[in-house]
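Structure, all two chains, one model.
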Amino acid sequence: MNDNIILLSHDEQQLRLSRVRGLMKQAGLDAVLIADFANLYYLTGRVYAGYAYIGGRDGEQMYFVKRMENLQGDGVVGIRKPEQMAESILIDASAVIGIELDLMNYNMVKRLQGIFPEAQIKDCTSVMRAARAVKTDAELQMLRRSGVLHEDVYRRIPGLYREGMTDIELEIEIERALRLEGNLGQFRISGDTMETYMGSLITGDNADEPSPYDFAMGGAGLNPSLPTGACGELIRPGSAVMVDLCGNFTGYMTDMTRTFSLGSLEKLAMDAHQCSIDIIERLVTLGKPGTPASELYNAAMEMAKERGLHTYFMGHRQHAGFIGHGVGIEINELPVIAPRSRDILQLHNVIALEPKFVIPHVGAVGIESTFVVQDFGLECITNAPTEIISLT
Amino acid sequence: MNDNIILLSHDEQQLRLSRVRGLMKQAGLDAVLIADFANLYYLTGRVYAGYAYIGGRDGEQMYFVKRMENLQGDGVVGIRKPEQMAESILIDASAVIGIELDLMNYNMVKRLQGIFPEAQIKDCTSVMRAARAVKTDAELQMLRRSGVLHEDVYRRIPGLYREGMTDIELEIEIERALRLEGNLGQFRISGDTMETYMGSLITGDNADEPSPYDFAMGGAGLNPSLPTGACGELIRPGSAVMVDLCGNFTGYMTDMTRTFSLGSLEKLAMDAHQCSIDIIERLVTLGKPGTPASELYNAAMEMAKERGLHTYFMGHRQHAGFIGHGVGIEINELPVIAPRSRDILQLHNVIALEPKFVIPHVGAVGIESTFVVQDFGLECITNAPTEIISLT
């Protein structure tokens, strides 16, 4: 392992720091103190136990490391407890310091506040979210690499099916194929409203089982301790099999869903799947820098309504309130593609669009792909075939 | 899916509630408001999005559900936002309410505080941790079932090895075998100091790579975004292969490590492995209700020192500061088996003991098993063979 804490190239790190500093200035923050693993990975190219301190001016950054004390580099300081940071961080008593108040537990925030008793503490969660929402070229490269590997495994899914398989048995074979291709397995999620193992594979009535998590689709899961996705149901003739498994090959995740079938599906399901493909085709030209995210949602909902499919759109017994989301280090990044979202698409946002339908007794149909927002529209980076492919 | 929110039997739920209420009283809490998924699962037998409100008196409990609004049962109230709980919860203005301040993000705590502006808010994280540390008979049953399945897969590990495999290739085959046996995959961890996919498999020098996480062992991992465990290293003759993969078959996890080898290992490694087995044998008779957890740690460290092995004990370049931990719904429960732990073993604590050694160039050796604290000592519930088994 490389013992230097900064695994990013110098230019790449400066680019990210200058982006963060620009947003800090807009938010009135003199400094931020970062502890979230995903944010540390963004700032340094590695996950470590500790903190990154970013001051407002160039060169004002320090990396406090609690374990792996052998890590080296400019501005790296080993600490045993956070209070020791006070010896190294010199700021005005009246400074405004950003902490991730939306991610860090209450007790830890109070402890950090105690280190800077005179400073004003503000939330910097949204600063980091906004910085990470616009990907750098190096990040796009990671995402493209994930996309190619993700898609390569999805193309092989029909070959993994054997007659008589349950949903979970097929999922396990796909998990294995993904892992052998280099998938890290980890499905990194910001906050505490979602959990999953490696994603979801749902078929038949299980697609209509509501889930407590903020995913687009549900599924009962194998156990009430993790109620999402496959439930051990036999894959039956005439049912759809929706595969939405983790694309984390690089520390950056692509999000891709494809629908398979056992034999042919009823017309309603085929129509809904085609509607999903058509929605994506429409959004690909609509989504440009400056487009409100809500406009994408509204266009999708309108198409579902026009075709009389809105009852099934984004769920049947329970409906998800969004059709897409930013993706990168985590699965739930900005922008959010939802009716009341105030997000505006920016050049090099990376978004997953997932206009899906739940058809009672058949299962879930539709596709999801990951896109880079470009000047000409949305560039797809997960290019597995979009039609429903029969498993046999 | 069962639409009743309480999946526990009536008696089982009352048992857990009375345990929580006893600890609430000791902590001076009039009520607790719980949101953490693991704690909700403990209180109801299912994970849901929302809150459990537990008042101090029998029958004072309510379950607020944000999604899956169809969930039913006594005391179940659907809400869209937490503020709506104020309409249902009637408490004295001066009440002391417990919230999970060690687990819940700062912004959410402030929001909940706003619902009860006159109440005094205290931390209830440790109340829930203490309640969950002593397992009920129903929980022990879940853990025993996980143990049997976990052990069944570990026995089959040598048959999964093929010549020329890397660490990650062998791990993937074990992951698949675990999943086919019903493993949920999820490695549930409390707090934000650890992450992993499904656990760890380490061989050779990778065992000596420090990790930022609070696991006993390290490993570089496949990517700096998840620096733990297998790194893609070839399994070489003369090296040890330590397998420490997830035992979550029931929502309750067993924790078990076994060591395999390719061919024979050098004497130092064999001696260290035997020391680990001997330490466990010693601790099994020492660990009874009333034994201080620190005493177990000290006995283990003393044995490692007596045999001149302390340089390698619990790591080589970096040393872990504990030899065991409680386990159940999560991997890091109470008690903590560490030198400065104040925990005292209680009847029906469930603990994983993992006296391990890192031998440079060979890898990690030693075993870990999960035990129930009984009056007669520690009862092992993960009974795969303990000797080093050759993969070929």
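Chain B touches chain A through 67 residues (CB under 8 Å).
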